[in-house]
Amino acid sequence: MSRPTDAAPAKDQPLIDDIRLLGRLLGDVIREHEGEDTFALIERIRQLSVAFRRHADTRADRELKRLLHALSDAQAVSVIRAFTYFSHLANLAEDRHHIRRREVHERAGHIQPGSLDHTWQRLRRAAIGGDTIAETLRQGLVSPVLTAHPTEVQRASIREAEGDIARLLAQRDAIRARALAAGSRHGDRVSARELAANEALLRARITQLWHTRLLRFTKLTVADEIKNALAYHERTFIPEVPRLYGDIETALGGTPVAPFLRLGHWIGGDRDGNPNVNADTLWLALQRQSDVILRHYLREVHALGAELSLSAMLLPAPAALQALAEASPDTNEHRRDEPYRRALIGLYARLAATLTALSGGVAARHAVAPQNPYPDAAAFLADLRVIEAALIEQGCAALIEPRLKPLIRAVEVFGFHLATLDLRQSSDQHEVAVAELLARARIAPDYSTLDEGGKQRLLLQVLADPRPLQIPDAAYSAVTERELAIFRAAREARRRYGAAAIRHAIISHTEAVSDLLEVLVLQKEAGLLHGQWGEDARAELIVVPLFETIEDLEQAPRIMAEYYALPGVAALVHAGGPLEYGEQEIMLGYSDSNKDGGIFTSNWSLYQAEVALAALFDRLSAEHGRPLRLRLFHGRGGTVGRGGGPSYEAILAQPAGTVRGQIRLTEQGEVIGSKYANPDIGRRNLETLVAATLEATLLPPRRPVPARFLRAAQALSQASRAAYRALVYETPGFADYFFHATPIREIAELHIGSRPASRKATQRIEDLRAIPWVFSWGQCRLTLPGWYGFGSGVAALEADLGCDAAHALLREMHARWPFFATLLSNIDMVLAKSDLALGALYAELVPDARLRRRVFGAIEAEWHRTHAALRVITGHEQRLATNPALARSIEHRFPYIDPLHHLQVELIRRYRAGRQDEKVKRGIHLSINGIAAGLRNTG
């Protein structure tokens, strides 16, 4: 199906070859299973689209539009399926090429930014030694947090088949490499046979894909989302995280590295706006997480038993190992002289019993019956350490490296819980629960009507009173019962699965100090707050305010200063032990701040909030004479419009002194799949997070940001925000335009998440969640949240300073300020993926012609202003001039995405006109999938 013909660098020829191969096989499958006529139709559409996109053939464009408009519903679905599957296959080829090029660079000794090799090189130049690095990691935390936001549109069946294709592409490279190593430039009979067999397997998997349903029949449940997230842990995180630790320790000359890289997720604990999440889903998530990691341990212990066949007749066993073997219930005479095997059978029996106790699962093998479950992961780790020490004492340390050492590291990192599960709820729901508790206890009949000062005084009194608010056997509302149940479940879960299982209680829409105190009250009611307030009180869960809108970000430093000025708060945090509320985490929301104020103001408000919060906690630490550690949690989405973009550059662009070895950040939507579905790419992405965190911590900029840069950024922010809000919130009829000119209504019907697309059943932009907001603009190819307003900001600065002075200042900011350069790079990428012509096609869906012209005209004018601003600042006429690989990728992808857009608009028009046939609906939803796959970052 694919015939790329444009000249490409020789280094990209393997990518072109893979795309051609996969495209040809897809075409063969279509011809074989759908018939020659369908294949010919799809091929004609491909040729016309390529002719227009790459050669500006307007006749081809007109013919393409006529052809697509005339398709029947059934034909449209077949065409959409073909181009959608091609987008999926092209993604696999690009992923393989990314790995291939990385390997080429490494073999040639070329060190790439974002790699740990690059970080070690930079740190050596700065004379920073291994001990300093190890200590930074010991005190550090790097934690990607998976969330279940509704932009993940891929079914597990599709993902697994695509995983097989990815492995087969890697296998082709290995076959060719063996042939070259054997001295055969053009291959040999053996490699020819192997490649033919490989191609046959590829054909089989593509045939499977073609006949596998892309879409779900039913809406995802929370259980489905949990299963989906755990697939990434099984495939990537569990095997790759220990390897990454091993690489770091090797680079540091064998210096042990404490566990600092830990996984987190929200799935099963994020109640904000999702009525399907409750204490039951929390337990389900924890049970399934535990099941996954314990089964991994069981497999590894079983394999160790096969490997450690050492006989005590040949090598006397150390006393500790012998004691472990004697404690084992294994009495098989055949293993009497094999202490390692006996000990490991005992470990296996204990793990099997632990599996049943924690998840209800049953182990696959039983040399002896499951018995004596481990009380915690530390006890299992201690047994593994006995085996490790015995091997070292016997001079058999070589047997540690292949399996035992990664297993020990896995237990240190994953425990029996696998990943830390966050709790999240909206502040208004916490308030409802606390208000009812206070009313039923006859302390405050109408807590919610109190002013902020009154709320704080009352909540502090409640915290200081050792008596609970809840009355035994009293009936409470569903909201209150739900909130109490989840905090009680958290308390029990920490005891069953370990304190690392649940550590954070995140408060969405934090707007006041009382929002934080309410969560402390709920912890107190659930037995998570211990001791006497103001004396020896300590809380188990970190209270994490989430500041989301522009106004919330501006108020964040004041709110946190007032919170820590309250009696007992600083003492509470100082008293917190390991894995308790002993540090302050603050979450910053990228998505809602962008929807509120536009791309530039969102990023600038986040930057200012980070600087102010870091300064506040430095001051608080000095005032209290003890450190109050601050960790920032970045709520980044997949797209630039939701805070996405390359993680390495994003972390290095953080204000100086705000990372400090600790960072948590969300991974969301399709980006989870693109980053972590392939284990090799997943490991590289984890490496990038570690590399950036170390560099941002240990290599701060030598000079502060000039004041004139900060003043210019403030001016840009004010003007860009005004332009953005003028369009989105102040243009009459804008919401109508959005709901007609994007597939937002059709996206809401997709079964791609357990959470509703809107917070309320309205068509107000304010009530729409940021994820479908950005997703919809990506589908219609205007990508508005990722760039709108910046051009107006630059125009305002030009008017204020004069064009020459403004341009000189902006160019200097771009050259010297990572924050500004990274933001412009992201805007540049988003503009490169936008297409005004396609946006105009979607605008035709708006029935009100005057509204259509007014809104689209404003968008078009701002697009040109932003494009011109980037040209002036960067000096590049074309977008992505500094990223030719991505530019070529986009250039090759667009001809295959264009037909999907045209057909999506055509089918939406039919659907909204009343032809709500199942084929029409399915075609629309398939096109959403295909466009999302083609653009690669959707929400």
A few lines on this structure:
The chain has 939 residues and is mostly helical.
Question: How are the SSEs placed, and which strands pair?
Answer:
Layout: H1 13-34, H2 36-55, H3 58-69, H4 73-107, H5 116-125, H6 130-138, E1 141-146, H7 156-181, H8 189-210, H9 222-251, E2 264-265, H10 279-307, H11 319-326, H12 339-359, H13 377-393, H14 400-414, E3 420-421, E4 423-426, H15 427-440, H16 452-464, H17 478-497, E5 504-508, H18 513-525, E6 529-530, E7 538-539, E8 542-547, H19 550-565, H20 569-575, E9 584-589, H21 591-597, H22 599-624, E10 630-635, H23 647-652, E11 662-667, H24 670-676, H25 679-698, H26 707-728, H27 734-741, H28 744-749, H29 770-779, H30 790-801, H31 803-816, H32 818-833, H33 836-843, H34 849-874, H35 884-912, H36 918-935
Parallel strand pairs: 1-2, 1-11, 2-3, 4-5, 5-8, 8-9, 9-10, 10-11
Antiparallel strand pairs: 6-7
Account of the protein in words:
The protein is 63% helix and 5% strand. It has 939 residues and is mainly α. The strands form 2 sheets. It has a 9-stranded parallel sheet with strand order 3-2-1-11-10-9-8-5-4. The protein has a two-stranded antiparallel ribbon with strand order 6-7. The longest helix has 35 residues, at 73-107. It starts with 12 loop residues before the first helix and ends with a helix. Residues 640-644 have low confidence and may be disordered.
